[in-house]
């Protein structure tokens, strides 16, 4: 799967050692996770240098009630 075939993120963010994309559904996030892992993307530097990127629920965005409103995937 190429990035042009992946679902469109609803938000993105660049950080020093990795980036994040947020997707509207968990299925979309899983598609990104499969692509990121298949292409061997990893964190670049810092404490987690070399750790595989992929689906990371720790970065999910939630509403006031705690419901997930955007599903996060870390990317290189």
Structure classification: alpha+beta
| Percent in strands | 25-35%
Total E-strand runs = 4
Strands of the widest sheet, in order across it, are 1-2-4-3
Indicate the radius of gyration in whole angstroms: 12 Å
How many domains is the backbone divided into?
Answer: 1
Largest sheet: 4 strands, antiparallel
Q: Summarize model confidence as the mean pLDDT.
A: 94
CA(first)-CA(last) distance: 16 Å
H and E order: EEHEE
Number of helices: 1
> Roughly what percent helix?
10-25%
Q: Identify the overall geometry.
A: globular
User: Low-confidence parts, pLDDT < 50 over ≥5 residues?
Assistant: none
Task: Describe the protein in words.
The chain is of the alpha+beta class and 76 residues long. The chain has one domain (3-75). It contains 1 helix and 4 strands, in the order E-E-H-E-E. It has one helix at 26-38; strands at 11-14, 19-23, 61-62, 68-75. The chain has a 4-stranded antiparallel sheet. A hairpin with a 4-residue loop joins strand 1 and strand 2 (19-23). The radius of gyration is 12 Å and the shape is globular. The model has no long low-confidence stretch (mean pLDDT 94).
């Amino acid at each position: 799967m190429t990035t042009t075939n992946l679902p469109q993120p609803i938000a993105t963010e660049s950080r020093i050692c990795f980036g994040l994309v947020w997707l509207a559904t968990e299925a979309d996030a899983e598609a990104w996770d499969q692509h990121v892992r298949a292409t061997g993307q990893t964190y670049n530097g810092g404490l987690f240098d070399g750790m595989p990127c992929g689906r990371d629920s720790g970065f999910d965005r939630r509403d006031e009630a705690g419901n997930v409103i955007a599903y996060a995937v870390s990317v290189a």
